[in-house]
Amino acid sequence: MALIEGLNAALTLELPRIVFYCDYFPIYQFVTGRWNPKQRKIEALVDQVTQLREKFTYCIPSLVARNDVKFAFKLAREAIVSQVNRSTDTSAEGSLYETCVICFEEMSIDEIFSVDGCMHRFCYSCMKQHVEVKMLHGMVPKCPHEGCDCELKVDSCSKFLTPKLVEIMKQRKKEASIPVTEKVYCPYPKCSALMSKGEVSEYSRSSAIDVGRSGSRKCIKCNGLFCIDCKVPWHDNMTCFAYKKKYPNPPGEDLKLKTLAQRNMWRQCVKCNHMIELAAGCYHMTCRCGYEFCYTCGAEWKEKKATCSCPLWDDGHIIYDSDEEFDEEFDEDSEDEDYYESDSDDYY
Protein backbone atom coordinates (compact mmCIF):
# COMPACT_ATOMS: atom_id res chain seq x y z
CA MET A 1 0.00 0.00 0.00
CA ALA A 2 2.92 2.35 0.71
CA LEU A 3 4.36 1.52 -2.72
CA ILE A 4 1.03 2.29 -4.39
CA GLU A 5 0.84 5.62 -2.57
CA GLY A 6 4.39 6.45 -3.66
CA LEU A 7 3.69 5.61 -7.31
CA ASN A 8 0.56 7.76 -7.27
CA ALA A 9 2.58 10.64 -5.81
CA ALA A 10 5.17 10.24 -8.60
CA LEU A 11 2.40 10.35 -11.22
CA THR A 12 0.96 13.48 -9.62
CA LEU A 13 4.40 15.09 -9.91
CA GLU A 14 4.48 14.00 -13.59
CA LEU A 15 7.72 12.06 -13.20
CA PRO A 16 8.12 9.91 -16.36
CA ARG A 17 11.10 7.79 -15.21
CA ILE A 18 11.55 6.37 -11.71
CA VAL A 19 13.33 3.61 -9.80
CA PHE A 20 11.67 2.44 -6.59
CA TYR A 21 13.59 0.56 -3.93
CA CYS A 22 12.38 -2.50 -2.01
CA ASP A 23 14.02 -3.46 1.27
CA TYR A 24 11.48 -6.26 1.83
CA PHE A 25 12.33 -9.32 -0.27
CA PRO A 26 8.78 -10.76 -0.75
CA ILE A 27 7.45 -7.46 -2.15
CA TYR A 28 10.38 -7.34 -4.59
CA GLN A 29 9.57 -10.89 -5.71
CA PHE A 30 5.90 -10.00 -6.20
CA VAL A 31 6.42 -6.82 -8.25
CA THR A 32 9.05 -8.47 -10.47
CA GLY A 33 6.73 -11.40 -11.20
CA ARG A 34 9.04 -14.02 -9.69
CA TRP A 35 6.39 -14.96 -7.13
CA ASN A 36 2.64 -15.30 -7.69
CA PRO A 37 0.58 -14.13 -4.69
CA LYS A 38 -1.55 -16.85 -3.11
CA GLN A 39 -3.78 -14.44 -1.20
CA ARG A 40 -6.51 -12.49 -2.97
CA LYS A 41 -5.78 -9.27 -1.10
CA ILE A 42 -2.09 -9.35 -2.00
CA GLU A 43 -2.88 -10.28 -5.60
CA ALA A 44 -5.18 -7.25 -5.91
CA LEU A 45 -2.47 -4.95 -4.55
CA VAL A 46 0.18 -6.39 -6.90
CA ASP A 47 -2.17 -5.92 -9.87
CA GLN A 48 -2.68 -2.30 -8.83
CA VAL A 49 1.10 -1.77 -8.72
CA THR A 50 1.43 -3.31 -12.20
CA GLN A 51 -1.22 -0.96 -13.61
CA LEU A 52 0.47 2.08 -12.09
CA ARG A 53 3.90 1.06 -13.44
CA GLU A 54 2.48 0.94 -16.97
CA LYS A 55 1.73 4.67 -16.75
CA PHE A 56 5.45 5.50 -16.58
CA THR A 57 7.85 5.44 -19.51
CA TYR A 58 10.40 3.84 -17.20
CA CYS A 59 9.61 2.23 -13.83
CA ILE A 60 12.03 -0.34 -12.40
CA PRO A 61 12.22 -1.95 -8.92
CA SER A 62 15.55 -2.36 -7.15
CA LEU A 63 16.30 -4.57 -4.14
CA VAL A 64 18.38 -3.03 -1.33
CA ALA A 65 19.50 -4.22 2.10
CA ARG A 66 17.56 -2.71 4.98
CA ASN A 67 20.79 -1.62 6.70
CA ASP A 68 21.61 0.50 3.64
CA VAL A 69 18.47 2.61 3.99
CA LYS A 70 18.27 3.07 7.75
CA PHE A 71 18.69 6.81 7.31
CA ALA A 72 15.54 6.91 5.16
CA PHE A 73 13.52 5.17 7.86
CA LYS A 74 14.89 7.60 10.45
CA LEU A 75 13.88 10.62 8.36
CA ALA A 76 10.44 9.14 7.67
CA ARG A 77 9.74 8.47 11.33
CA GLU A 78 10.88 11.95 12.31
CA ALA A 79 8.48 13.35 9.70
CA ILE A 80 5.66 11.20 11.08
CA VAL A 81 6.28 12.29 14.66
CA SER A 82 6.29 15.92 13.56
CA GLN A 83 2.72 15.48 12.31
CA VAL A 84 1.31 14.65 15.73
CA ASN A 85 -1.49 17.11 16.35
CA ARG A 86 -2.81 17.86 19.81
CA SER A 87 -4.64 21.06 18.96
CA THR A 88 -8.13 21.70 20.26
CA ASP A 89 -10.96 21.16 17.82
CA THR A 90 -13.47 23.87 18.72
CA SER A 91 -16.12 22.36 16.44
CA ALA A 92 -16.09 19.16 18.48
CA GLU A 93 -16.92 20.66 21.87
CA GLY A 94 -13.29 21.23 22.77
CA SER A 95 -12.20 17.59 22.37
CA LEU A 96 -8.47 16.91 21.94
CA TYR A 97 -7.29 14.86 18.98
CA GLU A 98 -3.98 13.25 18.13
CA THR A 99 -2.70 11.50 15.01
CA CYS A 100 -1.52 7.92 15.59
CA VAL A 101 1.96 7.59 14.08
CA ILE A 102 1.25 4.00 12.99
CA CYS A 103 -2.11 4.20 11.20
CA PHE A 104 -2.16 8.01 10.65
CA GLU A 105 -5.76 8.13 11.91
CA GLU A 106 -6.79 11.17 13.92
CA MET A 107 -8.04 9.81 17.24
CA SER A 108 -9.47 11.29 20.39
CA ILE A 109 -6.82 11.42 23.08
CA ASP A 110 -9.09 9.11 25.10
CA GLU A 111 -8.22 6.43 22.52
CA ILE A 112 -4.47 7.07 22.60
CA PHE A 113 -2.22 4.81 24.67
CA SER A 114 0.95 6.17 26.28
CA VAL A 115 3.68 3.58 26.93
CA ASP A 116 4.93 3.66 30.51
CA GLY A 117 8.54 4.70 30.76
CA CYS A 118 9.24 5.96 27.23
CA MET A 119 5.90 7.81 26.81
CA HIS A 120 5.60 6.94 23.11
CA ARG A 121 1.97 7.25 22.05
CA PHE A 122 -0.17 5.09 19.74
CA CYS A 123 -3.89 4.43 19.31
CA TYR A 124 -5.53 1.53 21.15
CA SER A 125 -6.32 -0.32 17.92
CA CYS A 126 -2.70 -0.34 16.70
CA MET A 127 -1.42 -1.28 20.15
CA LYS A 128 -3.84 -4.20 20.38
CA GLN A 129 -2.73 -5.57 17.00
CA HIS A 130 0.94 -5.08 17.89
CA VAL A 131 0.63 -6.90 21.22
CA GLU A 132 -1.44 -9.73 19.70
CA VAL A 133 1.13 -10.45 16.98
CA LYS A 134 4.05 -10.44 19.42
CA MET A 135 2.30 -12.78 21.84
CA LEU A 136 1.13 -15.02 19.02
CA HIS A 137 4.77 -15.76 18.29
CA GLY A 138 5.84 -16.24 21.89
CA MET A 139 7.46 -12.85 22.36
CA VAL A 140 7.19 -10.35 25.20
CA PRO A 141 5.57 -7.22 23.71
CA LYS A 142 7.62 -4.04 23.74
CA CYS A 143 6.96 -0.49 22.63
CA PRO A 144 6.31 -0.42 18.84
CA HIS A 145 8.55 2.62 18.37
CA GLU A 146 11.66 1.84 16.32
CA GLY A 147 14.64 1.10 18.55
CA CYS A 148 12.68 1.39 21.81
CA ASP A 149 13.17 -1.57 24.20
CA CYS A 150 10.66 -0.45 26.81
CA GLU A 151 8.55 -3.46 27.84
CA LEU A 152 4.81 -3.03 28.07
CA LYS A 153 3.16 -3.50 31.46
CA VAL A 154 0.26 -5.91 31.81
CA ASP A 155 -1.83 -3.56 33.94
CA SER A 156 -1.51 -0.76 31.39
CA CYS A 157 -2.31 -3.03 28.43
CA SER A 158 -5.50 -4.21 30.13
CA LYS A 159 -7.00 -0.93 28.85
CA PHE A 160 -7.18 -2.34 25.31
CA LEU A 161 -6.74 -6.13 25.73
CA THR A 162 -9.42 -8.69 26.51
CA PRO A 163 -9.11 -10.60 29.83
CA LYS A 164 -7.99 -13.68 27.91
CA LEU A 165 -5.20 -11.78 26.15
CA VAL A 166 -4.15 -10.28 29.48
CA GLU A 167 -3.65 -13.80 30.84
CA ILE A 168 -1.63 -14.77 27.75
CA MET A 169 0.54 -11.69 28.24
CA LYS A 170 1.18 -12.65 31.86
CA GLN A 171 2.22 -16.11 30.66
CA ARG A 172 4.61 -14.63 28.08
CA LYS A 173 6.22 -12.43 30.71
CA LYS A 174 6.63 -15.38 33.06
CA GLU A 175 8.21 -17.49 30.31
CA ALA A 176 10.66 -14.69 29.54
CA SER A 177 11.57 -14.21 33.20
CA ILE A 178 12.71 -17.82 33.68
CA PRO A 179 16.10 -18.80 32.20
CA VAL A 180 15.95 -21.57 29.60
CA THR A 181 17.88 -24.02 31.79
CA GLU A 182 15.49 -23.38 34.72
CA LYS A 183 12.18 -23.92 32.90
CA VAL A 184 10.03 -26.88 33.92
CA TYR A 185 6.64 -27.81 32.48
CA CYS A 186 4.16 -30.04 34.26
CA PRO A 187 3.99 -33.37 32.32
CA TYR A 188 0.27 -33.83 32.92
CA PRO A 189 -1.56 -32.91 29.66
CA LYS A 190 -4.44 -31.18 31.42
CA CYS A 191 -2.07 -28.89 33.28
CA SER A 192 1.25 -28.15 31.45
CA ALA A 193 1.97 -25.36 33.94
CA LEU A 194 5.25 -23.49 33.57
CA MET A 195 7.52 -23.39 36.63
CA SER A 196 11.14 -22.71 37.49
CA LYS A 197 13.25 -25.48 39.03
CA GLY A 198 13.74 -23.40 42.17
CA GLU A 199 10.05 -22.61 42.42
CA VAL A 200 8.94 -26.22 42.08
CA SER A 201 11.63 -27.46 44.51
CA GLU A 202 10.58 -24.96 47.19
CA TYR A 203 6.91 -25.89 46.73
CA SER A 204 7.74 -29.60 46.96
CA ARG A 205 9.70 -29.08 50.20
CA SER A 206 6.77 -27.21 51.72
CA SER A 207 4.64 -30.25 50.85
CA ALA A 208 6.96 -32.54 52.86
CA ILE A 209 8.56 -34.12 49.78
CA ASP A 210 12.23 -35.11 50.06
CA VAL A 211 13.65 -33.38 46.99
CA GLY A 212 17.23 -34.15 47.97
CA ARG A 213 17.13 -37.93 47.70
CA SER A 214 14.70 -38.34 44.84
CA GLY A 215 13.64 -36.60 41.67
CA SER A 216 10.07 -36.35 42.90
CA ARG A 217 8.46 -32.93 42.56
CA LYS A 218 4.94 -31.54 42.99
CA CYS A 219 3.35 -29.25 40.42
CA ILE A 220 2.53 -25.86 41.93
CA LYS A 221 -0.74 -25.70 40.00
CA CYS A 222 -2.32 -29.18 39.87
CA ASN A 223 -0.32 -30.75 42.76
CA GLY A 224 0.49 -33.73 40.56
CA LEU A 225 3.71 -35.62 41.37
CA PHE A 226 6.26 -35.91 38.57
CA CYS A 227 9.90 -36.78 37.99
CA ILE A 228 12.13 -33.74 37.49
CA ASP A 229 14.77 -35.88 35.74
CA CYS A 230 12.79 -37.65 33.01
CA LYS A 231 9.81 -35.24 32.91
CA VAL A 232 7.08 -37.88 33.36
CA PRO A 233 4.49 -38.54 36.09
CA TRP A 234 6.16 -39.84 39.22
CA HIS A 235 7.31 -43.49 39.09
CA ASP A 236 7.31 -44.56 42.75
CA ASN A 237 9.93 -47.13 43.86
CA MET A 238 11.39 -47.21 40.35
CA THR A 239 14.48 -45.52 38.90
CA CYS A 240 14.30 -43.48 35.73
CA PHE A 241 16.26 -46.17 33.88
CA ALA A 242 13.92 -48.92 35.08
CA TYR A 243 10.88 -46.83 34.16
CA LYS A 244 12.11 -46.24 30.62
CA LYS A 245 12.97 -49.91 30.26
CA LYS A 246 9.53 -51.01 31.49
CA TYR A 247 7.67 -48.42 29.40
CA PRO A 248 9.72 -47.99 26.22
CA ASN A 249 6.67 -46.98 24.19
CA PRO A 250 4.76 -43.75 24.81
CA PRO A 251 1.18 -43.87 26.17
CA GLY A 252 -1.78 -44.21 23.82
CA GLU A 253 -2.53 -40.48 23.92
CA ASP A 254 1.05 -39.68 22.92
CA LEU A 255 0.84 -42.12 20.02
CA LYS A 256 -2.33 -40.40 18.80
CA LEU A 257 -0.58 -37.06 19.07
CA LYS A 258 2.44 -38.30 17.10
CA THR A 259 0.18 -39.73 14.41
CA LEU A 260 -1.63 -36.41 14.16
CA ALA A 261 1.72 -34.60 14.10
CA GLN A 262 2.98 -36.74 11.22
CA ARG A 263 -0.21 -36.15 9.26
CA ASN A 264 -0.03 -32.37 9.74
CA MET A 265 3.78 -32.19 9.42
CA TRP A 266 4.28 -30.82 12.94
CA ARG A 267 7.70 -30.89 14.56
CA GLN A 268 8.82 -31.88 18.03
CA CYS A 269 11.43 -29.93 19.95
CA VAL A 270 14.34 -32.26 20.67
CA LYS A 271 15.13 -30.41 23.89
CA CYS A 272 11.77 -30.29 25.70
CA ASN A 273 9.68 -32.61 23.43
CA HIS A 274 6.90 -30.07 22.93
CA MET A 275 5.03 -30.30 19.64
CA ILE A 276 5.30 -27.34 17.27
CA GLU A 277 3.16 -26.21 14.34
CA LEU A 278 4.32 -23.47 11.98
CA ALA A 279 1.42 -21.03 11.59
CA ALA A 280 3.23 -18.32 9.67
CA GLY A 281 6.69 -16.91 9.18
CA CYS A 282 10.03 -18.40 8.25
CA TYR A 283 11.40 -21.85 9.08
CA HIS A 284 13.64 -20.57 11.89
CA MET A 285 11.76 -21.75 14.98
CA THR A 286 12.30 -20.80 18.61
CA CYS A 287 10.60 -23.19 21.03
CA ARG A 288 9.17 -21.87 24.29
CA CYS A 289 12.10 -23.58 26.05
CA GLY A 290 14.49 -21.40 24.04
CA TYR A 291 15.84 -24.07 21.66
CA GLU A 292 16.23 -22.80 18.07
CA PHE A 293 16.04 -25.11 15.07
CA CYS A 294 15.07 -25.49 11.42
CA TYR A 295 11.41 -26.46 11.00
CA THR A 296 12.19 -28.31 7.76
CA CYS A 297 14.93 -30.70 8.89
CA GLY A 298 15.24 -30.14 12.64
CA ALA A 299 18.87 -28.96 12.54
CA GLU A 300 19.87 -26.64 15.38
CA TRP A 301 20.31 -22.91 14.80
CA LYS A 302 23.40 -21.49 16.51
CA GLU A 303 23.88 -17.78 17.20
CA LYS A 304 20.88 -16.96 14.99
CA LYS A 305 22.46 -18.82 12.07
CA ALA A 306 21.31 -22.01 10.36
CA THR A 307 23.50 -25.13 10.40
CA CYS A 308 21.65 -26.58 7.41
CA SER A 309 21.08 -25.53 3.79
CA CYS A 310 17.26 -25.60 3.85
CA PRO A 311 15.38 -22.57 2.43
CA LEU A 312 14.57 -19.92 5.03
CA TRP A 313 10.88 -19.54 4.17
CA ASP A 314 8.02 -20.45 1.86
CA ASP A 315 5.84 -17.73 0.34
CA GLY A 316 2.64 -19.35 1.58
CA HIS A 317 3.69 -19.06 5.24
CA ILE A 318 4.73 -15.41 5.20
CA ILE A 319 1.37 -13.65 4.94
CA TYR A 320 -1.96 -14.67 6.45
CA ASP A 321 -4.72 -15.54 4.01
CA SER A 322 -7.32 -13.54 5.92
CA ASP A 323 -7.88 -11.60 9.09
CA GLU A 324 -10.12 -14.37 10.42
CA GLU A 325 -7.25 -16.84 10.21
CA PHE A 326 -5.22 -14.63 12.54
CA ASP A 327 -8.08 -14.23 15.00
CA GLU A 328 -8.57 -17.99 15.23
CA GLU A 329 -5.08 -18.40 16.68
CA PHE A 330 -6.35 -17.04 20.01
CA ASP A 331 -9.52 -19.17 20.15
CA GLU A 332 -7.80 -22.09 21.88
CA ASP A 333 -6.92 -22.34 25.57
CA SER A 334 -3.68 -20.42 26.04
CA GLU A 335 -2.26 -23.02 28.42
CA ASP A 336 -2.52 -25.78 25.82
CA GLU A 337 -1.07 -23.78 22.92
CA ASP A 338 2.59 -23.13 22.13
CA TYR A 339 3.42 -20.01 20.21
CA TYR A 340 6.66 -19.59 18.37
CA GLU A 341 8.62 -16.80 16.79
CA SER A 342 10.64 -16.28 13.65
CA ASP A 343 14.01 -14.61 13.64
CA SER A 344 12.52 -11.62 11.85
CA ASP A 345 9.46 -9.61 12.84
CA ASP A 346 9.15 -8.43 9.25
CA TYR A 347 7.43 -11.64 8.20
CA TYR A 348 4.34 -11.03 10.31
UniProtKB/TrEMBL annotation:
InterPro entries: E3_UB_ligase_RBR, IBR_dom, RNaseH_domain, RNaseH_sf, TRIAD_supradom, Znf_C3HC4_RING-type, Znf_RING, Znf_RING/FYVE/PHD. Coiled coil: none annotated. CDD domains: BRcat_RBR_unk, Rcat_RBR_unk. One of its GO terms (biological process) is protein ubiquitination. The keyword NAD does not apply. Keywords: Metal-binding, Repeat, Transferase, Ubl conjugation pathway, Zinc, Zinc-finger. Transmembrane segments: none annotated. Residues 96-314, 100-144 form the RING-type domain. GO terms for molecular function: nucleic acid binding; RNA-DNA hybrid ribonuclease activity; ubiquitin protein ligase activity; zinc ion binding. Its cofactor is Zn(2+). It catalyses: [E2 ubiquitin-conjugating enzyme]-S-ubiquitinyl-L-cysteine + [acceptor protein]-L-lysine = [E2 ubiquitin-conjugating enzyme]-L-cysteine + [acceptor protein]-N(6)-ubiquitinyl-L-lysine. Residues 326-348 are annotated as: Disordered. Pfam families: IBR (PF01485), RVT_3 (PF13456), zf-C3HC4 (PF00097). Belongs to the RBR family. Ariadne subfamily. Might act as an E3 ubiquitin-protein ligase, or as part of E3 complex, which accepts ubiquitin from specific E2 ubiquitin-conjugating enzymes and then transfers it to substrates. This is RBR-type E3 ubiquitin transferase. It comes from Coffea canephora (Robusta coffee).
